[in-house]
From TrEMBL:
Residues 50-537 form the Amidohydrolase domain. The lineage of its organism: Bacteria, Pseudomonadati, Pseudomonadota, Alphaproteobacteria, Hyphomicrobiales. PANTHER family: IMIDAZOLONEPROPIONASE, PROTEIN LONG AFTER FAR-RED 3. InterPro entries: Amidohydro_3, Metal-dep_hydrolase_composite, Metal_Hydrolase, YtcJ-like. GO terms for molecular function: hydrolase activity. Its EC number is 3.5.-.-. Keywords: Hydrolase. This is Amidohydrolase. The keyword Repeat does not apply. Pfam families: Amidohydro_3.
């Protein structure tokens, strides 16, 4: 009889949406050996079996953030934190943090910040280049709105990027002017002008970012992620950094690589270098290709069929590419064998992307079974949803957008469009694999805020947005585990705690299926994370203490 290496006892084990709960679980050789009654699992114990006493807590499959940016998250941890929950509620606070950061840098060195939300600022507007000039007169400054689709720079950064008063906005982007003067605000493809002017991170910095962010994800119960645009910051060097940490065994989490394939991306270079669907290096797996279709609803750049309700009355957002170019990219990467993972938030952008994927279908290269994805897919129509279900195209949404930005959606788009956004219930009922994710560092990685919103449809201000789209807690955890595994072609080994699957496990501080939903928002934590049966995070040193 195979003896268990580790046994989890004295709490509930959530095995999966279809499987329900077990009293205890046994792990052997990195996989689930059995999940059953406490008595049956006790029979599998041996003298060397480690015991994890749940003490009334709950264990769930390791969480899977199906769309986030692991390497950029690690880099962002070294940037100026401008997120609202960190106390940034006015422009003076932004300027003060930028000025403090500039004091620690030499003249000419860049100051980069991320996470401000103009909707959360007292002034209800973006900072300006002139204001950033006053905060850091000797340094180029680049701050990004929380969505990552809009940013503001100062005069030194504009000069470094070669942006002057007569520089036209690039296709798919915006260089904002007021009264023929640059404001410093840039959107979408225009932001690439700044990125290209900035010094690129070193190989050591890239590897450190991956490892730092990966360990942070483990501390929240995540064992799998998708890095949703590898190559966007430092080109092919990002793939090389991932390969190095994977070969060295220091990649903390299972990572599904989505290559940045825009016009300025590395799609073809990566394919030529052998980074193709099916490649594996340690915990690293390759398969997806990213192309941006539009921007963000909070930043007024997601491409909509109807205008926004604020700002320019004619504004319907931004298409990054015209139809012909987008459809050419989709066919090209589809025929190269990649899973398509295409950013589209507004219904007009979703239509462009969906019709392009449909047109790429052919007897030689059918789209069925390829698990193509529309990332975010926030404001789709019922007709588009039905076409996605018919073609096997899945949405990969961020319920956290409702939590963090839902009130802004009501302002920008009206209650009806906000209510219909990110329809988790409709997707699940239609059989689509709507894998939950955070899009970090756009949103916080905190899984409990995401789970809270999936079951309540409430924003951080507790405004209800589209209550008909609520899920049960079991369905929400399902969206954060097995559905993520499915979108990464890994459902045969991840996402449930059943015999034969990898023992990727998160032990939560409380039984998330039994506590009041209000406690989920702020009171829950991950106490213990196991990857293939090995403890990789132990908040309280529980197992180390038990071994003494």
């Amino acid at each position: 009889m195979t003896r268990a290496d580790t046994v989890l006892l004295n709490g509930r084990i959530f095995l999966g949406l279809a499987e329900g709960f077990a009293e205890a679980l046994a792990v052997a050789d990195g996989k689930v050996l059995a999940a059953s009654s406490a008595a049956e699992i006790a029979a599998l114990q041996g003298p060397g079996t480690k015991i994890v006493d749940l003490a009334g807590r709950v264990a769930i499959p390791g969480l899977n953030d199906a769309h986030m940016h692991l390497l950029p998250l690690g880099l962002a941890m070294g940037e100026v934190n401008l997120r609202p929950e960190e106390g940034v509620n006015g422009i003076d606070e932004i300027l003060g943090r930028i000025a403090a950061a500039a004091k620690g840098r030499k003249p000419g060195e860049w100051v980069v910040g991320r996470g401000y939300d103009h909707n959360e600022l007292a002034e209800r507007r973006h900072p300006t280049a002139e204001e950033l000039d006053r905060a850091a007169p000797d340094n180029p400054v680049y701050i990004k709105r929380t969505c990552g689709h809009v940013g503001v720079v100062n005069s030194r950064a504009l000069a470094a990027a070669g942006i002057g008063h007569n520089t036209p906005s690039p296709d798919g982007g915006l260089i904002e002017r007021r009264g023929n003067r640059l404001t410093g605000l840039l959107a979408e493809s225009a932001m690439r002008l700044i990125v290209e002017a900035m010094p690129r991170p070193s190989a050591a910095e890239l590897k450190a970012a991956i490892e730092t962010a990966g360990h942070y994800m483990l501390s929240q119960g995540f064992t799998s992620v998708m890095d949703a645009a590898v190559g966007m910051t430092a080109g092919m060097a990002e793939l090389e950094a991932y390969e190095e940490v994977a070969r060295a065994g220091t990649l903390p989490v299972r990572t599904w690589v989505c290559i940045y394939g825009n016009a300025d991306g590395i799609g073809d270079a990566a394919h030529a270098a052998g980074y193709r669907f099916g490649r594996e290096t340690g915990l690293l797996r390759y398969g997806a290709m990213k192309v941006f279709g539009d921007g963000s609803a909070g930043g007024l750049t997601a491409a909509m069929s109807e205008p926004y309700l604020v700002g320019d009355p004619a504004n319907r957002g931004i298409f990054i590419y015209p139809d012909a170019d987008m459809h050419r990219y989709l066919r090209h990467y589809h025929e190269l064998g990649y899973q398509l993972a295409i950013h589209a938030i507004g219904d007009a952008a979703i239509e462009q992307v969906l019709s392009g994927i449909e047109k790429a279908d052919s007897p030689e290269h059918p789209i069925r079974g390829r698990r193509h994805r529309i990332e975010h897919c926030g404001f789709l129509t019922d007709g588009q949803l039905a076409r996605m279900a018919a073609a096997g195209i899945d949405p990969v949404p961020q319920p956290a957008f409702i939590y963090e930005f839902g009130d802004l959606y009501v302002t920008n788009l009206g209650q009806a469009r906000a209510d219909a956004s990110y329809p988790m219930r409709k997707w699940l009922d239609a059989g689509l694999h709507a894998a939950a994710s955070s899009d970090a560092p756009v949103c916080a990685t905190d899984p409990f805020k995401n789970l809270f919103t999936m079951v309540t449809r409430q924003t951080k201000r507790h405004t209800e947005i589209g209550g008909a789209e609520r899920l049960s807690m079991a369905e929400a955890v399902h969206a954060y585990t097995l559905l993520g595994a499915y979108t990464q072609f890994a459902e045969d080994r991840l996402g449930r705690l059943v015999p034969g699957q990898l023992a990727d496990i998160a032990v939560l501080s409380q039984d998330i299926f039994a506590v009041p939903v209000a406690a989920v928002e702020n009171d829950l934590r991950c106490d213990l994370t196991l990857l293939a049966g090995e403890v990789v995070f132990d908040r309280h040193g529980q197992l180390a203490a038990a071994a003494q």
